[in-house]
Structure formats: C-alpha cells, structure tokens
Amino acid sequence: MTTPDRPSLGVGLIGYAFMGAAHSHAWRTAPHFFDLPLRPELAVLAGRNRAAVTEAAARLGWASTETDWRRVLERDDVELVDVCTPGDTHAEIAIAALEAGKHVLCEKPLANTVAEAEAMAEAAARAAANGVRSMVGFTYRRVPAIGLARQLVAQGRLGEIRHVRAQYLQDWIADPAVPMSWRLEKDKAGSGALGDIGAHIVDLTQYITGQTLTGVSAMLETFVAERPLPTSTGKLGGVGGTETGQVTVDDAAIFLGRFTGGALATFEATRFALGRKNAIRIEVNGSAGSLAFDFEDMNVLHFFDGTEPAAVAGFRRIIVTEPEHPYVAAWWPAGHGLGYEHGFTHQVVDLVTAIGKGEDPTPSFADGLQVQRVLDAVERSAAANSTWTEIPA
Ligand code: SOE
C-alpha cells in the first residue's frame, strides 16, 4: 500500500456516470493495494448539474465539486485531469488540460474524429517535452489474462501469428424499447458499437500481438433506427417515453483486417448479440501455438502449446490468479480472482507509476490516434461497399 509520506497527486475528474464511477473507484482503491510513488488525492469532481455532481461527489469520495471543467484546470490542487465525458468533449478538455500543465487520463476512444485525435496527440507530444504525461483509457489491457497473453506472444510461444479472431459482444440495446442515450448519437459518440467496443478489440489485438493493422474491409449496420427519448437516465440507457429520436450510429460493425506481420484477422462488435453481456473473445493462432480469451470468464486464459507431443497436446485452461501473473500479487491469496473494476485500478497504478518515474505511460495519445485511424478506415470501407481500405501509418 502507498504510505502517507508519499507526495500527493491531486486529481480532478470530469464526468460522474458509468466511467466516472469506475475511475473514482480506481483512484480510491489503487493506493490501498499498490505501493505508488505518489498518493492520489480525490480533489475535485466536475459536472454541469450542481445537484447531481454534489450527490455524486459525496457518493464517490471526492473532496469538492465544480460545474465548469475549465475551473478544474485553474486549480492549484489539481495535477492530473481525468476525462470521463462523452467523446465530443475529449479533444477540447484534454488539450486545454495539457496546455495548463496537467497530466491527462482520457477515456476511449480518444476522440470522435482522426483530426481531433491528431490535435490531441500533438498536444500530448508538446506537453511530454515539459514532463506532462498522458494516457488513453484502454482499460482491458490491464486484465491479468490479457497481460499473460501478450507475454506468451512476446516469448515466442505462439510462433508466427497467422490468425486473429476478435469479437466484442453485448446485448444491452437489442430491445428496441431501450431509449436513446449519448452512445447512440454520432455527434456525441463519434460512432456506435465500432468506437464504443470495437475500439477495445482493435487495441487489445494490437497489444497482444505487438503488431498493428494495415488495412480493413468492413460492414456497418443500424438495426433500430429510431428509439424512445429517455425520461430518465441510467448508467447505460434509462427509461423511455413516447417521443422518439434518431439513432445516428452503427449498431454493429464487422470487418476483416490484416496485421503488419501478415496475420489475417476478423473483428465483430455488436450490442445485439442476445445473451452475450460483455463477451470480449479473442483467439490468436500462431505457427507454434494458440491462445483464447473470453472476458465473461476473465480470470482464465486458454493456451495450446503446439510443440507438445500430439498424443497429449490440448488447450490448457490457465487460471490467471497466481502471484506470478500481471498485477495479481497485490490482491488476494492465489486463486481468488479479479473483476471488471480491477482493470481500472491497474490503469491508475500504471499511470501514477509512470508519472512518478518521469516516463510516458502507455497506451499513449499516439496509440489512441492509431486506433482512431483504424476506426476511420472501417467507416470509409463500409461507406464504399466494403472496399479494402489501407490504414495510414
Ligand atoms: C458500453 O458499451 C461500455 O460501457 C463501453 O463504453 C465500455 O468501454 C466497455 O468497457 C463496457 O461497455
């Protein structure tokens, strides 16, 4: 755990819905389990609605509130700004924060357009020259089984990578009665399933393989074009009324891809896979072995070692809860398992550790920009009848 004599790191969080709650939990929890070089102080929570942000700050453990994010950037007790707002505000807030000399953690996808992401990556590079750090929140990188998968690939246990199969399957808007929310509006979210959850599997497959995508051929579909407008909001969605609004994003994205090393890839991101709740399924086949992961069984990694004698070879089910596994030693006795929230806690740990060491954390805004270029290529390909579309390096 982090001792009280460590210098403090004042945090200002913008946004207090689903991601705001997940990040608040992480900022509170990380110093209790990990020895961090800096001690996070939950200085201020920002949101536009005074009553709602006051209630959220009390519930989530923040010392004070602001109703204008610009005020957060002016405060001397804030050294890091955590951006948990919808995508249309990421660029403005993150760039202003970096220019004010604040470290920035920004939720994914980095931005709504490539142009915004480029401006953010440029601002991050300028700030880094002055020791100001930035990171984009691809939190699933911090699941121990994903970290182990990356290690196995890096150790050559899979050999040459030939196939990457990735799905992110949810079903929370399969019912047409689920009301409109910002995630279904293009001007707020940038895209639909593609940017919200497809971005995660693009990042994860590139992270695990250590390679990047060079091109894609894609299809996008919107199954439910009109939905009730909400009369109340919830973490995802809320309750719908009688008036309706237009869904302006994709409900599902499917694309083929090719990796720098030559591997062929398939991607599927949908919120219409009934019965699949948060199924991030990744399978990688190489010349020496294979691995398979499903977030719905997130403490497990399946590994096939193709160098074993055929008579005894088979997928082994590795329960990724040993102290030797990434992040696990800080938690419970071996075998007890972690959950969704731990990825966010590990994200804070890696960010604060990098800041303490004076290093640039990953994934960087440049990494976020590269994922944005993939999302953009998917949209351009889909608009051109699935034409093969190269991803600019
Ligand atoms: C909703 O689809 C959502 O909360 C995403 O926005 C998150 O990135 C993902 O972690 C879980 O699903």
TrEMBL record:
Presence of the UniProt keyword Oxidoreductase in the record: yes
Residue ranges occupied by any Gfo/Idh/MocA-like oxidoreductase N-terminal domain in the UniProt entry: 10-127
Residue ranges occupied by any GFO/IDH/MocA-like oxidoreductase domain in the UniProt entry: 149-291
Pfam families found in the cross-reference section: GFO_IDH_MocA (PF01408), GFO_IDH_MocA_C3 (PF22725)
Keywords, comma-separated and alphabetical: Oxidoreductase
InterPro entries reported in the protein's UniProt record: Gfo/Idh/MocA-like_OxRdtase_N, Gfo/Idh/MocA_oxidrdct_glycsds, GFO_IDH_MocA-like_dom, NAD(P)-bd_dom_sf
Protein name per the record: Gfo/Idh/MocA family protein
Species whose genome carries this gene: Blastococcus deserti
